[in-house]
């Protein structure tokens, strides 16, 4: 399995995981010039921007370590543009990371907060 196909399979697993937990998936692979968000969902009155990292093992700190400050900034900027474009109203916004590993999925809520310069 290539890394692209394993990444897509991981995103599919993550979306099913969130749906089973009661989330409503609003968008998948939302792309704007300069950034992409893997999954956008609602968790009650919270808008969730989720980055999915799929790995076959937990080397080098696991998938969470791959969400670098630069990646966080791109996700945050894309999220801001998404909210502005869609005109959505939610009580809060959250940035989560879903770590998809062979043994299961680790859902890290509030995995990061947007840089002050973003919002």
Describe the structure.
The chain is an alpha+beta fold. It has a single domain (3-108), classed as Trna Endonuclease, Chain: A, domain 1. 30% of the residues lie in helices and 35% in strands. A 5-stranded mixed sheet has the order 1-2-3-4-5. Strand 2 and strand 3 (46-54) form a beta hairpin. The longest helix is centred in the first third of the chain and has 18 residues, at 3-20.
Q: Percent range for helical residues?
A: 25-40%
CATH topology call: Trna Endonuclease, Chain: A, domain 1
**DSSP strand tally:** 5
Text of the CATH class: Alpha Beta
- Stretches with pLDDT under 50, minimum 5 residues: none
Q: Distance between the terminal alpha carbons, to the nearest Å?
A: 38 Å
Q: Strand order of the main beta sheet, please? A: 1-2-3-4-5
Give the CATH architecture: 3-Layer(aba) Sandwich
Assembly classification: single chain
Structural class: alpha+beta
C-alpha geometry: globular
Give a topology summary.
Blueprint: H1 3-20, E1 24-32, E2 35-43, E3 46-54, H2 69-86, E4 92-101, E5 104-108
Parallel strand pairs: 3-4
Antiparallel strand pairs: 1-2, 2-3, 4-5
Brief account:
The protein has 119 residues and is α+β, with helices and mostly antiparallel strands. It is built from two helices and five strands, in the order H-E-E-E-H-E-E. The chain has one domain (3-108): Trna Endonuclease, Chain: A, domain 1 (3-Layer(aba) Sandwich), CATH 3.40.1350.
């Amino acid at each position: 399995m290539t890394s692209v196909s394993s990444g897509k399979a991981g995103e599919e697993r993550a979306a099913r995981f969130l749906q089973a937990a009661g989330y409503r998936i609003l968008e998948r692979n939302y792309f704007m010039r300069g950034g992409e968000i893997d999954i956008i969902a609602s968790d009650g009155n919270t808008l969730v921007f989720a980055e999915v990292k799929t790995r076959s093992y937990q080397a080098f700190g696991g998938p969470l370590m791959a969400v670098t400050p630069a990646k966080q900034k791109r996700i945050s900027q894309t999220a801001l543009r998404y909210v502005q474009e869609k005109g959505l109203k939610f009580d809060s916004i959250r940035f989560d990371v879903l770590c998809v590993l062979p043994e299961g999925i680790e859902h890290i809520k509030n995995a990061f907060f947007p840089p002050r310069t973003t919002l």
